[in-house]
């Protein structure tokens, strides 16, 4: 991962490895497609905690997948993941059959660039991509703007201001996005923020919101779905400033694999104009050894179930089935069972 110090990566790896190890203990004690007590087959899908946008998306997937599964199969949601990286790793090690991940972490895991201490991912394939766009979102508290006088992240960095920054925990796309953002600003790392007298906290979304509300943090750097519930509530109850990244910063992030994606006016409380930003895409990954006919049925259900999924989770209204098999949206190649359906309907060659 270019520009990242080995010390930082090793530290994040150690924490992320602990998260994965503990979630594995909690996950089903078998590899792909667990046999249930009644002789049926359970497909485990790994996602984040109840109340997260990822869990809501998993529930929408389940609503369309359940009726389409071959006889004897059932889908079970397990909240064993801390984010997109962890979900893909749980699938890789056989502790989940499917996982809610993101295009960039998936690509980096496949290439062996996410973690220098972990070999490239080899047991995971894609099903669909682009079910949502996870937008890089930077917010300043009103107190911070008044105290510092800064209204851009570039000014904070240029002046080496000792800000208190919150991100999601290791294992999430949120912290990966924060690392990318700092790296795009001259190869900076969390250690640089601390060397200026600032602080960084890598925690879950509820803790992030609480710290911002209570004045214990100044800046949030995250990659989130539009109108993500925790931050939507924050911006409706607490005055926050949604910060636009400069064109130069956005151009650098596009080079990392992000895509251009504006945040429309009114998406967050107090946001009165469109904010230009970049985004990653949500994807759904699967074990390569999940049977082709099962993955074919799941893929067909997902690509024909957009309306039902969007009714359950409005953010999924941006999903374009015809583009769901794009490599840049997935980050990794399609499972053969998924590819078969895409080819049948003419979405991929």
Q: What fraction strand?
A: 15-25%
| Quaternary assembly | single chain
The string of secondary-structure elements, in order, is HEEHEHEHEHHEHHEHEHEHEEHHHH
Helix content: 40-55%
Task: Break the fold down into its secondary structure elements and pairings.
Elements: H1 6-26, E1 34-35, E2 41-46, H2 53-65, E3 73-78, H3 84-92, E4 98-102, H4 103-111, E5 124-141, H5 142-148, H6 153-158, E6 164-168, H7 173-184, H8 190-195, E7 199-203, H9 205-213, E8 219-224, H10 229-237, E9 240-243, H11 247-254, E10 259-260, E11 278-287, H12 292-304, H13 306-312, H14 327-330, H15 336-344
Parallel strand pairs: 2-3, 2-4, 6-7, 6-8
Antiparallel strand pairs: 1-2, 4-11, 5-8, 5-9, 5-11, 10-11
Helix pairs in contact: 2-13, 12-15
Give a verbal description of the structure.
By secondary structure, the protein is of the alpha/beta class. It contains 15 helices and 11 strands. The protein has helices at residues 6-26, 53-65, 84-92, 103-111, 142-148, 153-158, 173-184, 190-195, 205-213, 229-237, 247-254, 292-304, 306-312, 327-330, 336-344, and strands spanning 34-35, 41-46, 73-78, 98-102, 124-141, 164-168, 199-203, 219-224, 240-243, 259-260, 278-287. Strands 1, 2, 3, 4, 5, 6, 7, 8, 9, 10 and 11 form an 11-stranded mixed β-sheet that branches. Strand 1 and strand 2 (41-46) form a beta hairpin. It is globular, with a radius of gyration of 20 Å.
Which descriptors would you attach to this protein?
single chain; 11 strands; alpha/beta; 349 residues; 15 helices
